[in-house]
Amino acid sequence: MARMKFLCDADRCIECNACVTACKNEHEVPWGINRRRVVTINDGKPGERSISMACMHCTDAPCAAVCPVNCFYTTADGVVLHSKDLCIGCGYCFYACPFGAPQYPKVGNFGSRGKMDKCTFCAGGPEADGSKEEYEKYGANRLAEGKLPLCAEMCSTKSLLAGDGEIIAQIYKERVMKRGYGSGAWGWKTAYRESIES
Amino acid sequence: MASFLGLIRLVVGAWAFLLLVSATPASAQQVNPTASSVKEQQLLQELNRIQGRVSIPDQRSGVLEQPQGREWREFRNVTLRWIGGVAILGMIAVILIFYLTRGMVRIEGGRSGRTIVRFSGFERFVHWMTATCFVILAISGLNITFGRPLLLPLIGFEAFSEWSQWAKYAHNYLSFPFTLGVVLIFLMWIGGNIPGKVDIDWIKRGGGLFHDHPPAPRFNAGQKGIYWIVVVGGGLVAATGYQLMFPFYVSGIEGMQLAQILHSIVAVLFVAAMLAHIYIGTIGMEGAFEAMGSGEVDVNWAREHHSLWLDEQNARSRAGDANPNPAVTAAE
Question: TM spans, by residue (chain B) (predicted)?
């Protein structure tokens, strides 16, 4: 089985936010929630880099480890998903996540947390693949249709790569070899405890 | 004409030469745009977090990476379970051993049949409001830490999630009356809970738990300890709890991790302390529950456990003979 991962080639990202828009549109993500965002570091200074970040679908995911109701599960493809039926909106996954992936709709009492929402690697949730219930809770299930996440598919500079970790790492290595430089796979060491030598 | 062609040849030649000269070093020395670029590991080493600018409205999402959640995870899943387990089970064990060896602390002089008012209706209302909230907050809070390994395997995912959802609502909402109770307890009983000389003697003589009854005012050193645990502990859990309930009002994620650490450690110690309080207020001591039950205690109980307070009440009632039931006013 493939081990699905994201890789953002920071030397290619031009901060166009197409991935952010594609994600919001594909999954009809409500107001105030961003499953993916582009962060620009050292904005306007020499050496500035932009990185598109969502859930990294970590190995030994911290969110799953700290969840008090154990609502997370990892698919055979290594995608970290959760059940909104079980989630109680406590916020613990948000404290544990290194990437700020979990988001909470502000519903009910004093702006407190509703059910957690996060990037699904376009793989939906525990409901039947492609069902209406699944779409309403988690958005589209492109993986079940044999497609990869839309954010990466839409990326105008092919900076954001999504797919089998070994394949996207190989693509990145080839790029680095050809152009002679690369600032590394951002977040990989934290998420997967491994990095790609550049 | 020939000179004009020669000029063109010269210009083109010079231009081609310049192009060649200027191009050669550029191709020989390859440009590396990452030489000056920001590097992930370097940023993480410097600040242990990476933050930048985002163009979406949620500016807090500008934090790209903050790996310290790993330490928090270790605390939440391992350290806290040990602290909580040792504190609570340890306290239960101590109470059990004490009960089996010492048994219930009896009123040595037996019941006199005469009673004296110890706590007014308002005081008892505040006590029980806070106590009820505390028990529910404690159970729903312990559920967050110990529910997954202990309760979830017994009742299954759906039932456990449903229960935990209600427990979360209860935990959030009951924090308000609990906080109010802590504030009222602080104001209501601060007068009798300032540590004094008599407390040192009381502690030296083991609080009368083992042999004799040292003199004590309205609140003995043990009760003063409970009072300050409630006021300080309650204040801390309330402050850190509201910080978690209102995310980002006070701090970012690191602040919330610290708040959760403080909240949970204080809470499990608080629970352990309250177990002792509940024990001594019920099956641990004859005549003690009535103080918070009916509000009136037996005079012999008062003489044994709060002799200085009883003397004070008697002195007051003698001073105000006109009042047939002086203790009612004295209890405030």
Answer: 82-105, 125-146, 173-195, 226-249, 261-280
